[in-house]
Structures are given as structure tokens and as C-alpha cells.
Amino acid sequence: MSDVNKVVLAYSGGLDTSVILKWLQDTYQCEVVTFTADLGQGEELDPAREKALKFGIKPENIFIDDLREEFVRDFVFPMFRANTVYEGEYLLGTSIARPLISKRQIEIARQTGADAVSHGATGKGNDQVRFELGYYALMPNVKVIAPWREWDLLSREKLLKYAEDAGISIDMKHRQGGAPYSMDANLLHISYEGRHLENPAAEAEESMWRWTVSPEAAPDAAEYLDLEFENGDLVSINGKRMKAHELLATLNQVGGKHGVGRLDLVENRYVGMKSRGCYETPGGTILLKAHRAIESVTLDREVAHLKDDIMPRYASTIYNGYWWAPERLAMQALIDQTQKTVNGWVRIKLYKGNVIVVSRDSKTDSLFDPTIATFEDDQGAYDQKDAHGFIRLNALRLRIAENARNKRG
Amino acid sequence: MSDVNKVVLAYSGGLDTSVILKWLQDTYQCEVVTFTADLGQGEELDPAREKALKFGIKPENIFIDDLREEFVRDFVFPMFRANTVYEGEYLLGTSIARPLISKRQIEIARQTGADAVSHGATGKGNDQVRFELGYYALMPNVKVIAPWREWDLLSREKLLKYAEDAGISIDMKHRQGGAPYSMDANLLHISYEGRHLENPAAEAEESMWRWTVSPEAAPDAAEYLDLEFENGDLVSINGKRMKAHELLATLNQVGGKHGVGRLDLVENRYVGMKSRGCYETPGGTILLKAHRAIESVTLDREVAHLKDDIMPRYASTIYNGYWWAPERLAMQALIDQTQKTVNGWVRIKLYKGNVIVVSRDSKTDSLFDPTIATFEDDQGAYDQKDAHGFIRLNALRLRIAENARNKRG
Amino acid sequence: MSDVNKVVLAYSGGLDTSVILKWLQDTYQCEVVTFTADLGQGEELDPAREKALKFGIKPENIFIDDLREEFVRDFVFPMFRANTVYEGEYLLGTSIARPLISKRQIEIARQTGADAVSHGATGKGNDQVRFELGYYALMPNVKVIAPWREWDLLSREKLLKYAEDAGISIDMKHRQGGAPYSMDANLLHISYEGRHLENPAAEAEESMWRWTVSPEAAPDAAEYLDLEFENGDLVSINGKRMKAHELLATLNQVGGKHGVGRLDLVENRYVGMKSRGCYETPGGTILLKAHRAIESVTLDREVAHLKDDIMPRYASTIYNGYWWAPERLAMQALIDQTQKTVNGWVRIKLYKGNVIVVSRDSKTDSLFDPTIATFEDDQGAYDQKDAHGFIRLNALRLRIAENARNKRG
Amino acid sequence: MSDVNKVVLAYSGGLDTSVILKWLQDTYQCEVVTFTADLGQGEELDPAREKALKFGIKPENIFIDDLREEFVRDFVFPMFRANTVYEGEYLLGTSIARPLISKRQIEIARQTGADAVSHGATGKGNDQVRFELGYYALMPNVKVIAPWREWDLLSREKLLKYAEDAGISIDMKHRQGGAPYSMDANLLHISYEGRHLENPAAEAEESMWRWTVSPEAAPDAAEYLDLEFENGDLVSINGKRMKAHELLATLNQVGGKHGVGRLDLVENRYVGMKSRGCYETPGGTILLKAHRAIESVTLDREVAHLKDDIMPRYASTIYNGYWWAPERLAMQALIDQTQKTVNGWVRIKLYKGNVIVVSRDSKTDSLFDPTIATFEDDQGAYDQKDAHGFIRLNALRLRIAENARNKRG
Asked: Among C365, D168, D273, D305, whose Cα sits 20 to 30 Å from the Cα of B83?
């Protein structure tokens, strides 16, 4: 066990990180700095301050930051420029929040002169990797304390016992009915793992979902949204310009109302195992669909295909925790270069879980040329005879090969 | 104009290909062989025979083939093994039918001793390319007649006039209201282009859609389907084994009833322009979702990612018409190699346009190991301490780089 | 044949483009502007002016531009940042010159108010595509005249006859011994095609090569070069800073002396056929090797691999003529982003055709950390125990799969 | 430390693995099985038996296998079908031997009922990963002992002391002059790491190289080789058919004589650090060049490009130790599918370090069609006018975009 003077803990104020806070004090006899971020998870953060104070944390060592705007503007939106989806389904709601937490945690470590950082992620998941790759990338010699990999509180019982002994108040829900879902929430999504989700053959309980109504319970009337994009980023909804995080919050609210954005899947973790997860990403689901639609009229074909080809790698890079790595920056340079012309609007219809693109256009950057695509007389804009040569030369290698095959018999 | 003795025409029996039939006789003074394929488009094919006879086609020169089983088994299913989607949205319903038509048309050309083939695709679209690349790949020196690129009947009026003069009966719908949608149908989908769809800013008319009800009009009660897969292919629905095309037809019927599979998009054609298309692919939409789900429990992570990385290229290859090209065969070899373990079942819920995966598993090939993934005590199946070294070595290059940056200041 | 007022011809002053000049005047009755570029091909350009005047070209319509610096700085060097090689061998010497010629030709067209451009590339090769894609990308409605695809002078005899009739002086070499090699030269390379190279089973004649001595004829003493790079570009040789084109000219001179850079291959043209070509690229061969070497110590692993993965596509993009297309710009953004740390030096040994990297380092950006890599005691810089967890987690998916296989038996 | 009954050690008979043998006996008090493989490293293997006996290994527990044919036929040749090169330079000579050793070691473990395996690779390198990924993939619950990560003999002095105490004879070279190069040899290559190579700015000593003469010392007369390929594999040299390993041994001998195949580079290890290595791969260097040449006339363009695109990933997969992983098998299926037509011959010239392709052809599978590629009159085999349409449609998206840009001004 290494010698630690001061550690910055990513502190939610919940039971687990409260136990960790106490355990750090007990185990390392070190000063603890708590860092609590508002990423739009929808929880009160003030209790975190009170609890920290109760543990004897000095007021100047308690950091509670509203990172919502930075989160959406500098992390979520850049990621959506790439139409990023992991393994065909997952919108990376947890993955994209970790690098911002790491960054801010390291900033606080520098500011407070801390030599260590700590987090509450378990030793089986992706989040430990994402947090720690961020720490190491930004402060390569920082000491990292991952209590779940060190302590002996691996069973729920031991953890609750430790909390009780430490005078940490335990909610009723934690006492009853076994472990709760493992959840993570921020402006992009809320996720669920564990409990009976650990059986991929079992259907998720309706009572689990928190942000969205079920499609069955959604309104009977559809709702239309007009979304406007500039340089690939959403800038207004129904004509109202808002900040990045306000836009996403609005989409979440409307999407959740219409039962949009539930997902139930088995994914491959970076640490080598498969895991079942359920996600609610109402705003992100709308945003992805709309972004693809605005790109469909403003992006060159080969650029769009290049993006599609590189996307899975970009997604894995983020999923695996390499946001701060140079390969992510290199891919981002490519992606951002392509978004200069992604300007225009998309009209979306929401209805009982469906996100339907009904129309889209761009006044400034449309590459859709109706005079060429038309089935009507195009006045010579396109010479159909050109297709003959196009096909003949594209077929040439196939013809030569088949002729060669025939010659050999 | 080249000298043609006998030409095999891909003949639907509709107005356009009837005009082409007549035009070929008039223009090339050659014998015409008609080939009409049943790909599950849902139209009577008998009238095609009668019409052909009226044009003086010899009975032995009239080919009407039921290709439904071959179509789904050897073309649609192999393509779905790759989770193939073009430009993030389009399920390639038209693209995948063309290579089979080309193949059969060339077989008939060999059988009847024809020296030419012809089709009714326009000079602006992808289908001319797909047909002709198929012809050339399989019979490299065949003569190809593409009437739409040769004749002067480019306006609707001229075409109707020519039909009238030739005594071709014209449906009322063709006489009124301008050109109809340009449509294509087979067991995988039905597509719509043209008319007011030529304006991407205009919403599609509800009256256009033919195979699916709108989500609004779908039943209020959800329906569950149990789908079973073997080697990556669907083999049964709700426990009932059927032939490939029967399975797809069943999915179409159920999906259509629940408003599943509508799509409205702008796509990039191989010939260089953007085009607006609407598609109904009820069965394919279900199949894609379910196939991803069964892969999620049976496919190795790196194999899944490799497939995701190569998929857009495989999709473009098919979209552009290169089904018979060696690069498609090479990619197919990779894809098929991966499907040996894709065995198991998926439970799907259909409700008002939604296709929701609720559970999935594989008795024989699951790679989901609950003893490892569990949040509960795993009895040592996984050593959380291993994650420390995993992260440290994955972070090493990032740490070295940041240390180097800091050293230079 | 379209109506042309004024045409800008890419004019070398040689026999073929002189015939074209005359043919344009005869056929289109239009004003001709000649454009002759110095790309370092090593030929006198003054005769081009005299010849143009003889054809009655107005002095203000004769453009002779020294583009050597721009060529190497803005085209060759950016391409080498990607370690660009087509089909594993070809360094794209011809491909990379075409976009600059197109660009300048279109600038001249704008300046002189011309409505057409013309070039001397044949209808079978890649260069017609490269020139014309450049023209169309930069001036989309320009008229393009490609005489080799239009005229009837396809045989050598007819061409010489036309030249004779037009009073164009014909060198002795053109009169004798059939057609010469088809050659192209600029600061990056000289290429040879045609004649007996059309048989891939025939060895190239020693007398063909012009820029390099054979390895056998090269000096018996090796020569060392110290090359310095900044942001991925070569900036000095043996401590002497020079302009981009001077650096490449120096490498060509030294490389050629040592028999470096000959290549004999069969390549796949964009127009669908295979073609045999021989190339001399002495400077480029050295540059590629040295650039890889400096990257080897300054580039992050994943960035290097990302570049390697994207390189073949970037190479094809340039080979096929899409320098001015948006997908090239997107890839360039990625590549350039990676080169910020590519600073340092490489020591190269040249000897009878060999380019041998003997050492390399970077004072500012080395990621080579000898304290970690050492076989000696590393004082704890690297904890060998970390490898255990690294391997265990990387092996996890393989272990789960094999255990699952064994369980099913 | 886990409980071990019987361990199979990859035993070279050299100093290090002899110390390991003794250390395993001392530390684990377990039965040791030694496995020594002949992979063509060019060392006597009989001493390994004698030494093992001296350590008290039972005769039935000593395995000395000649794996040369299997190595080249089933590992080296399949890899060369992909033109595999890691980071643009390294031919993977060490990487490709490890999976075979792992496989045989596991076979012996099953045969002898051993529950553990062990190897002599250090905790900093790639080989530990390659060995162990192989072990785990083939016998997922095997115990793996990696002495270099466990023991305290990390310094050279301690190791020699331990050897001395154990009565292990130590060569003079080991006593003097510090640590030797870390070397690895098999039929594909010999590698060098460590010592003063740890400084990338230092030139390698001429005395280090063992398999090749320097180019300077190579014969003054060039030598030609005729190489014949079937399905992408070399089958004969100068008309003489031999087994796979005999062919490679022959190429090594001739190549070494002519100074072919030296390489000096800095590479990125999987464990996260950069490392300087020198390699001699005379036969492999010739084979790669020749294989590319025979592919150049027999492989379709798009297939060749697909292979080039996937190659770096295939190379990393092998480099990182994932030969037995399913993603390698999937890529191999693609690669092998492409090699069916790779039949023909290549003529190579070797001269003082140079490997020069002078000609190549295929009687059965050439796709080089001289009647089409010719600069002479092709009798209509290719219609140059086709190029017009080909270019126009390929340019269409660029023209539309530029027109759109101009319209907006």
C-alpha cells in the first residue's frame, strides 16, 4: 500500500462513495478532498456537502461543480458528430461522462496539491478503466486508489456493516430486497445493470425504468420537433436557441414523455466479459436520428462513408476510456473537419417510442440537387449516356476475370 | 447500335417493360425472350405471360420463375449475417434482389442462345449498374441494351404515346395525376421514389405506404415473437420451422400489422447524386434487430467489432452492385466463418412501430458468463486485482507521452 | 462537339501536345491558351514558348510557371506525412502532380476567361481521370476536351502524319524504332510504361532507366545522410536547411547516384485494367524510409496504427484523382493532427540501392523511454507484475469461449 | 502461489531456461516436463535432453520435437498470404512462432496430465503475452508460471549466482562483458534486442549480425531466382519443389549470402512501450516481395485493396499474440478465400541487399490483359469513350458540391 498524503475522491454522496470516503480515511490516514459533479443526473448535490462535512472534510476540500454545459458542449456533442454507437446499439452515455470527471478531478488534485485520486467503480467494469486512463493521461504519476479492488468489502453485507459501524445512514431501499440496480445517470442517459438483469433471458421489469414512460403509456398524439444544426451540433429546438445542455435536457423531457430511447442489450466490456445493460437515452436517441438526417442532405457521399467506416473504432475508443488519447484527437480532427457543412434543419415526429424523420433540408449546404435526381425531364442536367461508360469501366475488371476463367475452361 | 439476334428482357409485365419489349422488337428487329421473376413482390405473374404472347413472344421464350426461396436463402439471409445497413439506415431491399435477377437472366441467355440482355432501369439510378455489373461479371461479352439510356421516350407523354400506338393497354392510374411513384417490391421490401418525394423538405403522404399500417393505426396490444437462429440464419418463428422465404413472409405480415419498418431518407447513389427514398421493410427490420441480439450473446467481442468495421464496406459493395465481385466473396467468407456459433433464440416485442428485444439466450453457444459478470460474490471466478495491471499497461503509452511533454515543458 | 471559345491546354511542348494544340485550333476554331508547368521534370521550358508562338498563340496566352516549391511543399510533403504507398509499392509520383496542374490550369482559365480546358492524357489511363476530376471539382461547369478520346489519331502513324502536315518538327527518336516509352517526370519521380514493358514477363532494359544508376554501377562506398524533420516534414539534410523542392532535389541527386529507388511493378488502374510500370523515385524512397523512422520514436502506437489503417484508402484516393475531394481533406486533417510531434532526426546509409536506417532520435518528442524498455534493472519504472493482470483480462474472452466449448463437449 | 503438480516448461536448454527449470523445482516442488522445439533456430537440441536429465527430469517427461515443417506450412505461409508487416517494417518472425509453441506445449500438458505451463519470457515483452494468450485460449484453466514476473532474479548478477549455486554451467560469454543481446531465432528470422541497441540513436554493430553478410560483403555478381506459387504459397525454387520449411531454408541461405533482410527499427510493444530491435529475415524478405508480385498479376484490384486495408489489423492481431483468437480465424478465412487464384511465377534478382522483381506471370490466372492495356491499337478491346462517362459520373458529387458552394457565394 503506497503512502498517500491527500486524495481527491469522486464523491456522489451516496452510500458506496460514503463508505469509500471513510475507508480512505481509515486505511490511508490521509486528507480527503471530495469532488461532486453535476452532470445532470437529476439528484440534489447539497447533501453531498453536508455528508462530507460530517466526515470531517474541510470546507475548502469540498468541490461541487456544475459541469452540465461543458459536458454536453465539449463531450456529448463532439461524440454525436460521429453518429457514435457502440456495437450497433449503445449510445455511450456512461462512457462519455468519465473523461470529464477525470479531467476535473485531476485539476482539483493540482489545485489542492493532492498526490492521489480515487473512485468508486468496481474491478469488473469499464468505468475503472475509463477513470484511470483519464487520470494517467493527464497526470501520469498520480497514485490511483480503487477501493473495490483493494478492500475486503466485496459482499453487500460487509459493506452495509462497515457503513453502520461508521455511522453512515443507510436508506431503507438498501436494507431491503438485496442489492439495488447498479445505476449511472447524467444528461445523456441513465443505465441499469445487475440484479435479475444478470440473466439475459429474463425480460426487464417495467418498474425499473425511470426517465421514460413505456411506449404503451405514452400520449396518443404524436408531437413534432424542428431541430436546427450548425456545424453538426444542435443549436435550436422549435426555433428556440438554447445552450447545449438545455437543448439536451429539453430533448430528454419530450423524448421521455413519448417513450423514446429505451434499450436492453448485452454488450462486450473492455475487461473481457459480456454484460447485460438497460439504458434510457431519450434525447440522445432523437439527436442521433436527426444528426444522420441533416448529414444525409449536407454531407458528401465519400465523406459520409469514411465517417461510417471509422465510427466503430471511434466508439470503441471512447467506450474503452481513451478519450484523452491521441488517437481520439486524430479521429476527432477528421470528424470535425467534415462537420463544417452540416448546417440545416430536421423535422422529427415522436410517437409512442418512435423517432420518425419526416423532412430535412439546408438552405446553405444542401447537396441534394432536385434538377438532377428528378424522374421528370431534367433539361440536360444529367446525361444518362454517361452511365454507359461508368458501368463499362467499373465492370472491366470483372469482365477480364471472367474471360480469363473461361479461357482456362 | 450493335447487331442483336436474341435478347433476354427482365419483364415485369407492367407498362414500362411492355413498352420496352415493343421497342426492342421495333428497334433491334430481334427475337425477345421475356423473364419474369417472382421475388415475392405480391403481384400476379400470369398476366405477364399473356401480355408476352400478345407481343408475339414464342411460348418457349417466356420464362416465369418462382425465385422466392433462393432469394431469401442465398441472398437476403447471407446479407443479414453481416447486419448490413447502408448509410446507417437503408436495409438494401432493392440492391439485394438485382444480382439474382441478373444471374437468372444470364442463365436463360445461355439456355436460349441469346446474345443480349435488357432491363427497364433508368440511366440515373443504381439499378442499371447493379443489373449490368451482374451481367458482365457472369457473361462478360454479352450485349447490354438499356433502353432508357438509348431511346427518346424520356418524358412521360412520349412513353404513353408510344404505348398507345403499340396497342399496349394503359391503366387509369397512368393516365391521370402525372407519373406514379417509382416503386420496387420483393420479399424484403417495397420502395418509393419520385413525385413529391423529390423534395426532401416535404413529408411523405400517409396514403403512399402499402405494406405497413402507420404506428398510430397499429393494434393497441403488443405481440411477442420467439425467433430461433442457426448459424446466423433465422430458422423458426414461435417454434415453427419454415423455409427461408416463408419466415420472411411471416415477419413481413406480423411486422406490417404492427407498423414496423417504415423508413424515409436521403441516400447517396453510386452514380453520384443524392436521392430521397421511402422504404417499408417490416420483416427485415425485425430480423436485423434480432440478429444483432443473438450475436450479442454468442459472438466474441473482437469478431463482433471486426464485423462492424467491415460492414459499411460490405453494404456499399452490395448497394453499388458488386454482389458477384470477388471482394464480396472474400468478405462473405469472413462473415460466414463468424456465424458458426450464432445459434440461439431471441424474444421480440412488437408494438406500434417498435421492435423491442426483451430477452435472448443460447443453450449451446452463449459466451455470457453470469458467474463472472455478477455484482454478487463471484467465488473467485474473476480476480478484480487483474484489472490493476490491465489498466496500468494500457495506460503506459499515455503516461510516457505525458511525462515526455512535461519534461520539455 | 460542344461550342468552345477559349481553351487552356496543359502544354509540355513535346510532340503529342503540339499535335493537340494544332488539332484544337483546327477542330474547335477556338483561341488556345498554353500552360506549361515546371515541376522539376528536368526539361527546358523555353522551347515551349517558342513553339506556342509558332502556332500563333498570343504572348499573353502563354503561361510558363515554376511550380516546384508549391509542388513539393503543398502536395508531395503532405502526402508523405501519411507514408503513402499504393498497392504496397508505388509512391504515387505521377498521381500527386496532377491536382496541382489542374488547379493552376483552372486558375488560368478564370484569369483568361476561358470556357474549356484540355490535356494530353489518353483514354486508357489514370491521368485523364485525375486531370478531369480536378477540373470539375474546381470549376464544375468547365468544358473538358480530351483529344485522345475524341480524335482518330489513335495510331502512331496517323499522329506523325498529322504532325508532319502541320509542320511540327519531329525528333529522330520519334521516327525510328516505334513508339517510345510513355514517360512522366517531376521532382518526385520519372515513370515508364509501354513498349516491351507491356509484357509483365519481360525484364526491363537497363538502358531505359534515366535518373538512377543501377545498384551494380553505384559507388563502392556508402554515404550517410542526416535528415531532420519538423511536424513530419523534412527540413534539412546534413544540417543544411533548404526549401522543400531543394531538399527533394538533393535527395534525388544523392539517391540516384547510389542506385536507390527503382521499381518495376504491375498495378491496378482506376479505369479497370492492370498495367506494368517502372518508376525511379530516389528521393521519395529515402524520404518514406526516413519518415517512418522518425515516426517510430515520436508517434504514439495507436496513432501510428490508425495511420497505417487509413493509409491505403488515402493512397487510393490520391491515385484515383480525388485530391480535391472532401474525403481527402478529412483524411488530411487526421494525418496533419498526428504530425505535430513528429520532430527529430534520422541517420540514413545509402549503398548500392539500399536505404538503411541506422539511427534516429528526437530531442523534443521522443516517446522511447530507455528506463522502461531496458533489460537491465529499471529501478521500478515498470512493474512486471502488471503484465499478469494485463494478460489475464485480455485472455478472458478466449478463456470463457473455450470453457463454453468444452462444456458443450 | 498456486499449488502445482506438474508443469510443462518451454525449455531451450540455454542458461535462462535452465535456471527456470531449477527454480520451478525449488519453488513449486513439482514435477517438470521439458519441451524443446526445433523451429529451425539452428542450434543443437541434443544438449537440451542431457541437461534435462541432469536436473532429474524423467526421460518420458522430455519432449524434443521437430516442428519445422508445421511451422512454415501452417503458420509462416498463411501469414505471408496476407503480405503481413507490422508497423510498415517488421515481418513478425518471433510473433508467428509463439502460437505453435503454445499449442504443442498444451498438447504435452494434456498428454502428461500436467496442470501448469511455464515459459522464459520476461515481464516487459510481447512474448509472455503471446505464450499465455495461446495457453489460455487452448486450455483456459491451466496454471501459468511466468518466473520473470515472480522471482527476484531480475538482475544479471543474481541470475548467474543462482545458476552457479545450482551447478548450471555458464558459458564464457555470459560471464564477460555484461548481458548478451536478447535473441530469438527460428526459420523465419533471428532477432536482437538489448545492450547498446537500447539507445535508438546508436548504430548497430556490424559484429552483431549472424545470418546475413553485410551488403558490402555480399558477392559482386547478382543471382536470379525463379519462384513458383500455388494458392498463394511458395512451392518451388528454380523449378525444384520442396517442402515448406525446405523452401524457406533455401531462401534464407541464398538471401543471407546476398546481404538481404536486415532491419533496424523501433517498434511499439503491446505492453505499451517502444523498443528497438534488429532483425534478419532473408527468406521472408524475398518471400514478401515475390508474393506481392505474383498477386499483382493474379489478384483482382478490389480484393487486393481489401487485403491491404485489413492487413495492418491482421498483423497487430498476430503481433499481440491472438493467433488462436476467433478474429484471426475470421480474417484468415477472408485471406485464404482470395488466394485461390494466386498461381504463377516470379523472377527475382538478388544483389547486395537488394531484392528486385524483374518479371512475373501466370499461365492460369493472369488478369493482365495486354490487348487492353496496350498503347498500340487495341482493335476495339477497350472503348476510350467509356472513360468520358466514367469520369463524369465520378465527378458528379464534386460538381454538385462546388456549384452549391458557388451559389451561396
From this structure: D305
In whole angstroms, what separates CA D206 from the centre of its chain? 23
> In this structure, are D42 and D126 located in the same domain?
yes
How high does pLDDT run on average in chain B?
Answer: 95
Q: Residue D209: what residue type? A: W
H-run or E-run covering C133: helix C127-138
Residue A128, min C-alpha distance to chain C (Å)? 14
Domain region containing C156: 6-68+94-178
The verdict on residue C322 lying in a domain is no
C-alpha C354/C-alpha C198 separation (Å) is: 27
Question: For residues A87 and B309, what is the distance between their CA atoms, to the nearest angstrom?
Answer: 10
In order of C367, D13, D83, D208, D253, the CA distances from D267 in angstroms are 11, 29, 18, 19, 27
Residue B68 predicted with pLDDT over 70: yes
- CA-based nearest distance D119→chain A, Å: 24
Cα separation, A11 vs A168, in Å, equals: 14
Closest Cα to residue B130, out of B98, B104, B159? Answer: B98
Give residues 193 to 252 of A whose Cβ lies within 8 Å of B: 193-195, 198-204, 215-216, 222
Looking at B153, B178, B203, which one is the last position of a domain? B178
Q: Which of B279, B254, B293 is nearest to B80 (CA)?
A: B293
pLDDT at B179: 64
pTM of the shown model: 0.97
Q: Is A395 touching C (CB cutoff 8 A)? A: yes
Residues D49, D160 within the same domain = yes
The CATH number linked to D119 is 3.40.50.620
- In this structure, the answer to whether residues D256 and D208 fall within a common structural domain is yes
d(Cα C181, Cα B392) in Å, to the nearest integer? 59
| Crossing angle for the helix pair D15-28 and D156-165, to the nearest 10 degrees | 70
Spans in chain C with pLDDT lower than 70:
1-2, 172-179, 375, 377
Mean pLDDT to the nearest integer, A147-165: 90
Decide if D182 is catalytic: yes
Asked if this assembly's ipTM is beyond 0.85, the reply is yes
Query: Strands B116-118, B143-145: parallel, antiparallel or unpaired by DSSP?
Result: parallel
Count of structural domains, chain D:
3
**Is C141 a member of any domain?**
yes
The SS3 of residue C359 is strand
Look at residue A196 and tell me if it is in a domain.
yes
One-character DSSP codes across B123-163: TTSSHHHHHHHHHHHHSTT-EEE-HHHHSS--SHHHHHHHH
pLDDT confidence bin for A171, thresholds 50/70/90: confident
D154 and D235 housed in the same domain: no
C16 classed as catalytic: yes
Closest residue to D398, CB basis, from C133, C273, C366: C133
Provide mean pLDDT across the span D37-61.
94
Instruction: Please tell me which chains touch B, using 3 or more CB pairs under 8 Å as the contact test.
Output: A, C, D
Same domain, C211 and C147: no
Which cell numbers in the block locate residue D63? 519432449
